[in-house]
Amino acid sequence: MSRVKRKEDVFYRLFREYAEKIMAVAEVYKKIFSNDYPATRTLIHSMKDYENVCDDQAKKIFMELSNSFITPFDREDINVLTKRMDDIVDYMEAAASRMDLFAVTNMRPEAVKLAEVTVQAVGELVKIMDRLSNFKKDGTVMELALGVDVIEDEGDAIYKTALADLFREDVPTLEIMKWSRVFDRMELALNACEHACDIVQGVVMKNA
């Protein structure tokens, strides 16, 4: 019995650590996509280092999964949840790196807002992972996961406004191309937060 408990604790601990590491990336992401840009452009290269740290954490989960006969919930859900959490970091890094790759010199207000709501969504993910070990009894796990859907809806509205403003304003075609690609990655990062929470919702429903 103690062995089963230990294995369950390992996965919950690894997911808590993973969410905290993703939050660290999100905080840098928010600093980059702020009104202080382009001064914050120097932070872009550090995003790759943070991504590597998160990749290592994902590998720890996959390794534990491959070595465990007992898991706290479905093995496939653990696998997919890990991948969706990895997507959050990958897309944040991709959005930031495009600012450097495309030599973007200005900041769009919608980008600031998208970064802010992404940090908000990741913050909710951290809360979820803090409570995940008690998801069968703690109703706030589902409430928090559903709340991220609302945050994503807000982000989707910001994304649509961002694209509309790009084409509505007198913006050079090259700038439209640059920002369209940046906004696409920013939206995918926020979507990945929702997708991770969708997995959690599924886990709760399966074990209800």
Question: In summary, what is this structure?
Answer:
By secondary structure, this protein is mostly helical.
Features:
disordered N terminus, 0% strand, mainly alpha, single chain, 208 residues, Methane Monooxygenase Hydroxylase, Chain G, domain 1
Write a structural description.
The chain is mainly α and 208 residues long. The chain has helices at 2-32, 46-67, 75-101, 109-131, 140-168, 173-206. It has six helices and no strands. The longest helix has 34 residues, at 173-206. The model is unreliable at 1-5 (pLDDT under 50).
Which helices and strands occur, and which strands form pairs?
Blueprint: H1 2-32, H2 46-67, H3 75-101, H4 109-131, H5 140-168, H6 173-206
According to CATH, what is the topology?
Methane Monooxygenase Hydroxylase, Chain G, domain 1
Give the tally of β-strands. Answer: 0
Biggest beta sheet summary:
none
* CATH architecture designation: Up-down Bundle
CATH class: Mainly Alpha
Distance between the termini: 22 Å
Order of helices and strands: HHHHHH
Radius of gyration: 18 Å
Roughly what fraction of the amino acids lie in strands?
under 5%
- Average pLDDT reading: 95
Please, what is the CATH homologous superfamily?
Answer: Phosphate transport system protein phou homolog 2, domain 2
| Helix/strand structural class | mainly alpha
- Low-pLDDT ranges: 1-5
- Quick one: overall form? elongated
Number of helices: 6
> How many domains make up the coordinates?
1
